Amino acid sequence: MRAPYLARDEEFDLAVRWKDKRDQAAMHRIATAHMRLVISMASKFRNFGLPMSDLIQEGHVGLLEAAARFEPARDIRFSTYATWWIRASMQDYILRNWSIVRGGTSSAQKALFFNLRRLRARLAQGSDTLSSQWLYNEISAAIGVSAADVALMDSRLSAPDSSLNAPVVDDGTGASERMDFLVSDDPGPDEVVGEAIDEERRRGWLAAALRDLNERELRIIRERRLQEDGATLELLGERLGISKERVRQIETRAMEKLRAALIRVNPEFATAA
């Protein structure tokens, strides 16, 4: 904080020395003179519960990034240019560390995260009768996100993270965790049993249909259609001593036989084919 301010001409000369000659001493003087800007910016984010020292460190990273990208020929003060980089670096740090749950993945959500409290306080100022839905709608219009996103962010900011392994109740046999009350996405027992029965029925239909094929047709269908890595027409032709075009013809005829056999067993296959 005791570092001297830089006059406009001095700042320009230092920026040119860094840009053209990569003068590390010039870069150091620019960064040191603007550390008070980093500290001032960090104080504005102190209410997010993160250490000031960490915010200042992240802001310093943004300051160095600004110094590396600064174009003195554009004739603007370095502090004006660096402010955006410092703020962006601090905000990114806050979003990564405020919660273990990732949030603020879009620019609109980031704006909502950093402005929700301020906008809510401003809209509710002087009145205790405003409904939450009205507030959500007004904030939604101001920031450009949906009211549902505003409500979700408000609930996130109003309570800390909760572990799914945190105990909920203790019934004497052991404490139940929140994880125990989550709805599973796995299929239910009736669905599992039903799928197993249907799979067994389909396997029976296919096995019966395969009996209509002769030995060569059956071999081609097994190696071409019933294996995870089906053999090529050329490879099967070499094994059977015929051309690959002949293999293709036999395969087509075998598939027609299978289709006819399956339709005899279950006419519904005619509409599914």
Give the SSE map.
Layout: H1 8-21, H2 24-33, H3 35-43, H4 52-69, H5 78-97, H6 107-124, H7 132-143, H8 147-157, E1 167-170, E2 175-177, H9 189-210, H10 215-225, H11 233-240, H12 244-265, H13 268-272
Antiparallel strand pairs: 1-2
Helix pairs in contact: 1-2, 3-4, 3-5, 4-5, 6-7, 6-8, 7-8, 9-12, 10-12, 11-12
3D structure, described in words:
The chain is an all-alpha fold. It folds into three domains: 8-97, Four Helix Bundle (Hemerythrin (Met), subunit A) (Up-down Bundle), CATH 1.20.120; 103-182; 189-272, Orthogonal Bundle (Arc Repressor Mutant, subunit A). It is 66% helix and 3% strand. It has helices at 8-21, 24-33, 35-43, 52-69, 78-97, 107-124, 132-143, 147-157, 189-210, 215-225, 233-240, 244-265, 268-272; strands at residues 167-170, 175-177. A two-stranded antiparallel ribbon has the order 1-2. Helix 3 (35-43) crosses helix 4 and helix 6 (107-124) crosses helix 7 (132-143). The mean pLDDT is 79.
Q: Provide mean pLDDT, rounded.
A: 79
The CATH class assignment of the largest domain is Mainly Alpha
Summing up helix and strand content along with how strands pair, one would put the structural category as mainly alpha
Strand content: under 5%
Order of strands across the widest beta sheet?
Answer: 1-2
Beta strand count: 2
Q: Which word captures the global form? A: elongated
The CATH architecture category of the largest domain equals Up-down Bundle
As residue ranges, the low-confidence spans are none
Our Rg estimate from Cα atoms comes to 35 Å
What separation lies between the terminal Cα atoms?
78 Å
- Main sheet summary: 2 strands, antiparallel
Helix tally? Answer: 13
Percent of residues in helices comes to 55-70%
CATH topology group of the largest domain: Four Helix Bundle (Hemerythrin (Met), subunit A)
Tally of distinct domains: 3
Instruction: Return the string of H and E elements.
Output: HHHHHHHHEEHHHHH
